[in-house]
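Discussion board: Methods & Data

I've been asked by a reviewer to show the raw model output for two of the constructs in my manuscript, not just the figures. I'm not sure how much to include, so I'm pasting the format here to get opinions. Each protein appears as its amino acid sequence followed by a line of discrete structure tokens. Is this the kind of thing reviewers expect to see in a supplement, or should I convert it first? Here is construct A:
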Amino acid sequence: MDLPTQLLLSVFTLLMIIGLATAAQRLLGVRFGRLRTFLAALVAFGLAQPMLEPILSSLGPVGRDNPPAASAMGILLLIVMSVVLIPMVILVIAEALVPPGSVPGPLEFIRSVRGRLSRARRYSQITRIAIKHGLGPYLRGRGERLDDRSGKVRLARSLREALDEGGVTFIKLGQVLSTRRDLLPAEFVEELGRLQDQVAPAPWPEIERVLAAELGGPVDEAFAEFDRTPLAAASIGQVHAARLHSGESVVVKVLRPGIWPVVSKDLDIVRRLAATLESRTRWGRSLGLRDLAEGFSTAIREELDFRVEAANMAAVTASGGGGVTYPAPISAMCTERVLVMRRLSGRPVTAATPEQGPRLARDLLDCLLRQILIEGVFHADPHPGNLMLLDDGTLGLLDFGAVGRLDDSVRSALRRFLLAMNRQDPLGVTDALLEVVPRPEDIDEAALERALGQFMARHLAPGMDSVQLFTDLFRIVSAYGLSIPPEVAAVFRALATLEGTLVRLSPGFDLIGEARSFAGRHLAERITPETIKESATQELVALLPMLRRLPRRVERIASAAEHGRFTMNVRLLADDRDRRYVTGLLHQVLLTVLGATAGVMAVILLGTAGGPPALANTSLFQLIGYNLLVIAAILVLRVLALIFRRPRASDDRQARQ
């Protein structure tokens, strides 16, 4: 065979395979991956000859002197449908056994292998660090149970040293855990608290390269003075003192070099490690490590762009300090990796005296509640590392990488929630909570009201400890299937972090009493005759157009009822999504009925004796029966393909909208 003939034959074969793939996909009515469809058609093309050779041989020799019989068209139709049926069967079986997405494609597989190798190296490094500090048995869920304080202190120190050596992400994780007294014993909280302000700084040459790249020139040109020794080093960046050419003292926050790739890799490892520990260990399940890791991952990603932090700082500063001072950014010098802000003079808040603690805790609580309930822009991460005790004895609030925002409707519902909690009104608390979160259709409001009533009786009595306050509230919300919106979840996380900070500032701080006092000072005073009059006026103005039309509509309805013409129009399936669903369901039922009918008719015709001969040993009835049998198979395969096809994520999102 010469080369042109081979090329022509190859092109014809390729076109036949593409035609088979297209026909199979169109008949099934479901979109499959190109590679999967092509492979099914290729297999079908390879199987077609040995499977159809007996049918073709039964026709006998065909030529000029021996033309095909009249039944050749039926045979030809049967052959074509049989060939198309093969890739359809392969695709349906593959859809049932290997659904799309369960096996990665070539590119995804290569990326997955590279990711696994990269994670394996990091896993190995983390494992070596854990073993080095004696944490290996605890990662396997086989660590000994420690009941004495000295053993807990040793384990806490080992955990702190391992997190510190693990790098930026694990340092940040330790900082978050250090504020959760409701989750960890006091020994761990105390030890992990040292990560707030005892992080090793990055070398100056690396910091200098970042500054030069972001500011467009040498450090000495951008600043009149720059202290190369950092004031503090945190998990995300470190802070240096400097002075502008204008003479103003500033602090410069620099993102740690090469942090993005490390953080992305570590966050993936943290999520996987949390899932493993939650499934294999008792303490992991009790802490809810999977949810904790997801929330931590979301929060840390929001802190890696200092331009966002500068905008957040400006927004919070514009809303007022409320007795707490915020640093102001120098916007012209703020970039993605460098943040320049006016300097606040002071020292770490952990240096506060016991006499200063209650006042500072009260100011911090008042500030954050004001931000959340009144101003709508709030600091979402108020842990001790983000606080300073200024020289004048007041608080300074730092690090605005995580800031939450609430609209007026959510703030109003939260205010009603706090006021109802202050009155210990379970019904009011329930109504306010169901305004804050989406209301499920099947919620048992009476049971929720009783649970919230028991919650208030347990935590709002005088002298009760508030450490478990937010933990128990989260449990109630989760137990009744309430889905918390992200902005409200940020409020709860901030308040839970604030709770640990307040206890550290002032052990025994009366969080509940101070929150009630805030409600009395700032929320109750907003409900005055003037504000009620203003709200009523606004509502009345909004209702006026409807009130003008109401008498005419009432008169029209009464007249129609009086003369027996009162009717109601109800449009079933008015939503296009409902119509598509019912139409698709009817199509599947119709295809099933048609397939079953064709199959029954095929069996009847194949079992019928006699009839006009079509081939040597096959009657016309049997030939029609074979064709009907293939048609029935095609229809049934189309229904099975729709059944086995799992809904895609985009379809799920559209269905929920």
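Construct B, same format:
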Amino acid sequence: MSPTRPTRSEHDVLVIGGGVAGLTLALHVAETRRVTLVRPASDDQGASRWAQGGIAAVLSPQDNFDAHVADTLVAGDGLCDERAVRFTVEQGPGAIEWLLSLGVPFTRDHSPSASYPYHLTREGGHGARRIIHAEDATGRAVLDTLKTHVETSPAITIRDDLVAIGLLADAEQRCRGARCLNERGQLQELLAGDTVLATGGASGLYRHTTSPHPASGEGMMMAAELGAELMNLEFQQFHPTCLYDPDGPPFLISEAVRGEGGRLYSTDGRRFMPELDERAELAPRDIVARAIDAEMQRTGSPHVWLDVTHLGETAIRHHFPTIQAHCLNRGLDITQAPIPVVPAAHYSCGGIATDLDGSSSVPHLYAVGEVAYTGLHGANRMASNSLLECLVYARSCAATLAVSHAPATSPLPTATSVDREQLETQRIQQWRTTMRDIMSHHVAIVRRDAGLEAAARKLSELSREVHAAMVQAAPDTSLASLWHAVRLARLTVLAARQRRESRGLHFNPDCPHHTESGLTPSPSRLRLADLAT
């Protein structure tokens, strides 16, 4: 086996990930610098495309910034960074205007009483109608529009033949690009002046998710390998209503369904939300998800019912054409029968700690979208603030990159690779299934001390097995993704064990209350080195 050097190429701004955050960033940066966008084909099926509900922004004359800020702070259960919340909310209308200028086909409101040209719906946690949407497939509409513009930009080079597996650092520990694998498994090093991660969240750590191709925190761990700080990993949001169909692919039932009047019932016919929260089905997602989980345990059923039949066929067809058509294809007519739903891993409120311009603690490394922790979401993300965050921070990051200067040339270590045998795909998949089962059983909607301890022990054992394979096997995208995922799962468990309270998405009956009154709750902060302690 003879050592070989990976192919190296020089780039100006390298963007890794091509969902709404990555595409928005690329388009804005391309106005002043050249962009290389590493965007595998699977990004088309990532979280952005499946964002059905819409984008939260203050657009109606009856709404205001203070109200949106207040709603977000309540949903975040005391852990939001108010500076980040206000910044995001105030930048929202400009981001929507930009999307409209690109031609995103948002649903218009033709009613005579409309105070805004486009229809605004309401979702959980919001005190007003402020969700602009494209029917019930907003993510797809935004993603397709952005892709069209990116593909025609002369300043953007798309590399859909590469998958990033790690980042590069120079002697001063500044980020200098990424290590990638091409379709033949050959290493390529993309050296860059500035690198931006837009790789998505970590719902892929769990068995049931709302996306067919969920990220597993790969970008978070790539940044952590360079020393970046990760924050609030314990706050993994479970969307309350994913279609329950064990034999079919995941499919999200948008929060807008409840926003327009959908009602939740247990399988024995009890409407349970009104007695738990005055907001009923429109309570924040953490409350609704825990309520559904409790009803499933009470009845022994694998799901609950979400009923919209009382809205009438005309309203259902008008508001939810995509959901209705999809359910019909799966043998369910939602105009005549309730929808079986179950909570599923949906959104990571934690991630790479960044400032308001997406900058991380590692020089020349930025992060935008779900991979980042901005402080907007706190302990629980409010509905439809996610695409808003993608847009606002991508635009802010691009403004910083427009005036950023690439670091002076500094030598990088000379990398070599040795031909080794490929690890069996089945073995990698078995390890991933084991990890997901551990996380789903012990670190999901409700966690307990004993379960977290068991998860820590089992994941540590799994980590040793995977690492041994990493040393012996040839570079492989699936194996690299698993290695990132297992270590992020361990850090998530560590964060959950350290938080000795229940707050937002983190609920532990062994410490069921908030931190004692008078004490300010703190975000959790972890680095990769913490796994060694």
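Answer (T.O., handling editor elsewhere):
This is acceptable in a supplement if you add a one-line summary per construct. For B, something like: Residues 443 and 452 are 7 Å apart (CA to CA).
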